Amino acid sequence: MPNEVKSLNDECGVFGVWGVEGPAAKVAYSGLHALQHRGQEGAGILAIDANKRLNRYRGQGLLGAIFDDPHAFDRLHGNAALGHIRYATAGSHTINNVQPFMFENTETHFALSHNGNLTNADTLKEMLRKTGTIFQSDSDSEIFGDLIEISNQDTFLGRIKEAANQMHGGFAYVLLSPDAMYAVCDPNGLRPLVVGRRKDGAVVICSETCALDQVQAEYVRDVQPGEVVIVDDSGIKIDHFTEDTELTICSMEYVYFARPDSVIHGVSVHEARKRMGALVARENPTKADVVIGVPNSSLSAAMGYAIESGIPYEMGLIKNQYVARTFIEPTQERRERGVSMKLSVVKSVIKDKDVILVDDSIVRGTTSRFIVKMLKDAGAKSVHVRIASPDLKYPCFYGIDIQKPSELIGANHSVEEIKDIIEADSLKYLSVEGLIEAIDLDCDNQYHGLCTAYFDGKYPTPLYDYQETYDAEAKRLHLYEEDEVNG
Ligand SMILES: O=P(O)(O)OC[C@H]1O[C@H](OP(=O)(O)OP(=O)(O)O)[C@H](O)[C@@H]1O
Ligand SMILES: NC(=O)CC[C@H](N)C(=O)O
Ligand SMILES: [Mg+2]
User: Fold this and answer.
1) 107 C-alpha vs ligand 3 centroid, how far in Å?
2) pLDDT, tens digit, for every residue of 72-93?
3) For binding Mg(2+), which residues are annotated in this chain's numbering (predicted)?
């Protein structure tokens, strides 16, 4: 496994490219490299050769290490390729679950890469099992391909649409067949997916615009909820599998997951984070000597906080560049070890100072508890923790690995208790209204275009297979009652 430390699990990255002048697999590799922050558990690239055969190379760990094998690209010929970076939300951490998945039983063979999490995967698997489907993995992602294979529709596009209508939850899929590349986005657009075009005419569909930049592709458009985008030698066509759509893209993409140089639905992630930091400062004015961020994800928010408050921004924490993200790590023990190997204090910045520590989120509390202690050990007079997103109390079922409320410190403790647990002098979060204002999507639906369920429990869809377990655990943790009290 990679030398990776992350407290919030990432979301998976997908990258597809059609019509490259030259080997498409190399373009996919570059694109996936820019998406590595979205998952560190495994990666794969598949290419379609001149004989329309699918060839794949995949492995566990970081992309660079997997493709360091001198023979990795030996069979990856052709002008179209599909890649995936995995961070597991469903299924085991095994090589069988590393994507792209290949489907070669039908006359139309194809491959797929998925970012998201299906909320009715168990029900669909049960149904598929009865039709005789033999699964190649225990991941939810392959279900789309299995549904396409059993569909009776006449055309491949018809089969894609029929299958997409049976799935619920978060899904941003890219599919590749010898005839075309397709992008399919769930009716709420929970996960990001963008289309771009290179100078050689090749079309790219991937999770974030930072990967478009990496492969010199110009942004064309975001894939919208319910859409099927079809790319073939005649160009890009837009279709849809449903018109019953409502954009509620994951707000955590803006808070934490996406790279700051990405733009999602017209909003720069870096600028949104700066506004989150500025608003948390405005909502909770506090006197202090320095503002510091927690590299990497909260640096934009810390800058925004410093500018708004007028308190100098300083580099109080250093991140070891050879250790990766913490939330993404699959076990708590590895997360804790990860944080301690990852961050260190610049003592001259901290000693005898009242410090504002800005982080983008508290999930399990591993990171903040550790950092506050480090800052105090380095001589900080006081440490005021400011979180540039609201208190994270509710699990996510759409593609982030926080499915159990019991894992979330915010679900189990009040803000006052969390402040004591992390031994901070004070602790404040951004309000949900502040978060919506900071992201400022150009969307006037009831959700302002965002899924904020992790903070307010307002899930934009039914939870299907997860509903019963969620209800039981939420009741046990008194989440509903607390919200009623809070009005
Ligand atoms: O409360 P916790 O469970 O510790 O999780 C929250 C922390 O995890 C994330 O950073 P992470 O270390 O994953 O990645 P980063 O280096 O990209 O900021 C996030 O930015 C918080 O710092
Ligand atoms: N983070 C993701 O998008 C995960 C994809 C898929 N659900 C898996 O577990 O592999
Ligand atoms: Mg962080």
Assistant:
1) 46
2) 999 999 999 999 999 887 888 8
3) 297, 359-360
- Assigned token pair, 280: 């948390």
Distance, CA of 191 to CA of 208 (rounded, Å): 10
The tally of domains found in the chain comes to 2
Nearest CA to ligand 2 atom 10: 88
Q: 154 burial class (0-12, 13-18, 19+ CB within 10 angstroms)?
A: exposed
**Least confident segment among 325-334, 415-424, 463-472:** 325-334
- Measured CA to CA, the distance from residue 193 to residue 50 in angstroms comes to 28
Q: Which of 416, 434, 452 is at the close of a domain?
A: 434
Cis peptide leading into residue 100 (ω within 30°): yes
Neighbours of 486 (CB within 10 A): 7
Smallest-distance ligand from the CA of 87: 2
Domain boundary among 391, 415, 434: 434
Residues whose CB falls within 8 Å of the CB of residue 101, separated by 6 or more in sequence, listed in order: 111, 112, 113, 136, 137, 139, 141, 142, 145
Range of the domain at 378: 273-434
pTM metric for this prediction: 0.95
Q: List all residues whose CB is within 6 A of at least one atom of ligand 2.
A: 11-12, 86-91, 97, 114-117, 139-141, 399
Q: Can you tell me the distance from the alpha carbon of 34 to that of 43, in angstroms, rounded to the nearest whole number?
A: 13
Shared domain check, 202 and 83? yes
Structure tokens at 312: 């100098």
Q: Residue 473 falls within a domain, yes or no? A: no
Instruction: Pull the structure tokens for residue 248.
Output: 């509620």
12 is catalytic: yes
The whole-number average pLDDT for the span 316-329 is: 74
* CA 392/CA 328 separation, integer angstroms: 16
Residues 49, 25: Cα–Cα separation, whole Å: 11
- Residue 424 tokens read as 């901070």
12, 206, 250, 396: the active-site residue: 12
The answer on 240 and 289 residing in a single domain is no
Residue 477 has pLDDT above 90, yes or no: no
